From TrEMBL:
Species assigned in the record: Fibroporia radiculosa
Pathway(s) per entry: Protein modification; protein glycosylation
Pfam families tied to this protein: Glycos_transf_2 (PF00535)
Keywords annotated in UniProt: Endoplasmic reticulum, Glycosyltransferase, Magnesium, Manganese, Membrane, Metal-binding, Transferase, Transmembrane, Transmembrane helix
Functional description taken from the UniProt entry: Transfers mannose from GDP-mannose to dolichol monophosphate to form dolichol phosphate mannose (Dol-P-Man) which is the mannosyl donor in pathways leading to N-glycosylation, glycosyl phosphatidylinositol membrane anchoring, and O-mannosylation of proteins.
Subunit (UniProt): Component of the dolichol-phosphate mannose (DPM) synthase complex.
Source organism, top-level taxon: Eukaryota
EC supergroup of this enzyme: transferase
UniProt EC number: 2.4.1.83
Protein's name according to its UniProt entry: Dolichol-phosphate mannosyltransferase subunit 1
Molecular functions (GO terms): dolichyl-phosphate beta-D-mannosyltransferase activity; metal ion binding
Amino acid sequence: MSGIIDYTIVVPAYKEAGNLRPLVTRIFAALSRIDSPVPAYLVEVIIVDDNSRDGSEQVVQSLQQEGYNVRIIIRTTERGLSSAVVRGFQEAQGDNMLCMDADLQHPPEYVPQMLATLSPTKQFVLGTRYGGGAGSDEGWPLYRRVISNGARMLALPLTSASDPMSGFFGIRKESFLKARNLNPHGFKIALDLLVKAHIQSTAIAEVPFTFGLRSIGESKLTGKVMMRYLEHLAELYWFSYHAPIAFVLLLLTVIILFAWHYFTRTVEAPVEIPISKGRGGH
């Protein structure tokens, strides 16, 4: 594809071949609407794939042949969501960059508004599940809601953003280039960028959205992922505050985590039904 590109959408992916076609076609359908504030011809989509070997490359090639401005980067020596996003931003042609998941939980219909919100005065745009009529996470089971809200609460000392956990966010390239010591193994790259690019609260715009449903593939939320998030928080606390303050915050975090861990185990525990030993029992 040729021409001027002002906007880049980066999609980190691993074994998401079944979602790539609906994702890309819905993005460009939203951008092609007559009321879209961003024209489709100014936008590119970059899929950063961690060597899935599931047909993702063939899907992208087919979309290219149909005229969609999409390309794929296959990484064979690196793994991880955060480093994939950073790689996509480094390769971006546009000065306005958006990150979204491949699993369709970030509805492509919000893309035009998210992209249009970025400006010299709004350096960061965040899709938020909280406030402004957003659907929050009401469809999730209780333990997922507890985890989500606990993660948000632990990030409060680091940013005024209402939902740095959503993963649906955009940043201007000028701010991205100011960020230093990004954590390629961090659990949430949006939070890392908010802190390390020194994004002021006045430079953050928020767009309420409702999570879509994953149609193909499996959720990647695991206990290991949550532990990586906690390690990432510890690193960000140390980055943002002087040592004594960081120590106090980390101590409070540990206390909260113990309570959080106990509660999530409690709500996930199956209810035991006693077996009757009456007539017919063994």
